[in-house]
Design goal:
The chain has three helices and no strands. By secondary structure, the protein is mainly α.
């Protein structure tokens, strides 16, 4: 009776909400059919696409990690090569500086040798010019002596007669000139 009185009171509402009616059963069956269709034909391709995407993302992450480690290795190699290049450049610069210093020292030595050679040639030339000048002066000395003697004596002097005296004067002049040249060279050295 309890159901009968409840049915009578709620017949105006269309039934008791706790008791399932035919619409509910139809909706439940449709829901279960749609759920079965989704589970059988729609969900497996979606799961397959999701799995494929997850695998691709995992593969891409692994490749990115490998690329990152390779780039770190490449950066380390680059830094090592730059360091080696700097060391080689420094060695080349040092070698070039040593070569330039050596070339400078060799040039300085050649310059000193050339200076010595030119100085020696100049001394030899000067000595030769002095010798020629002395000989020229000594060649004229006999005429000067004869001329001076004629003036002092007031007459003519026979050069052939007094040749012995003139030769002695020339020898004395040579000795004096040689002593003076030796003193000059000793002062230059």
């Amino acid at each position: 009776m309890l159901f009968a009185s409840a049915g009578a009171t709620s017949s105006g509402n269309g039934g008791d909400f706790l008791i399932p009616n035919g619409t509910f059963v139809v909706e439940l069956i449709i829901f279960l059919v749609v759920l079965g269709v989704v589970a059988k034909w729609i969900l497996p391709p979606l799961q397959e696409v999701a799995e494929t995407r997850r695998l691709r993302i995992g593969s891409a992450m692994q490749q990115a990690e490998e690329a990152r480690s390779e780039s770190q290795l490449a950066l380390a190699e680059r830094a090592r090569l730059i360091l080696e290049a700097r060391i080689q450049a420094s060695a080349i610069i040092d070698q070039a500086n040593r070569g330039a210093d050596l070339a400078l020292e060799q040039g300085r030595q050649r310059g000193q040798e050339e200076y010595g050679r030119l100085l020696e040639a100049s001394r030899a030339e000067t000595s030769e010019e002095c010798r020629r000048a002395r000989e020229e002066m000594l060649g004229r000395l006999d005429r000067l002596v004869v001329s001076a003697a004629e003036r002092v004596l007031g007459g003519r002097v026979d050069a052939d007669r007094h040749r012995g005296l003139i030769d002695e004067a020339i020898a004395a002049a040579h000795a004096t000139a040689s002593d003076a040249a030796a003193g000059t060279q000793a002062g230059e050295g």
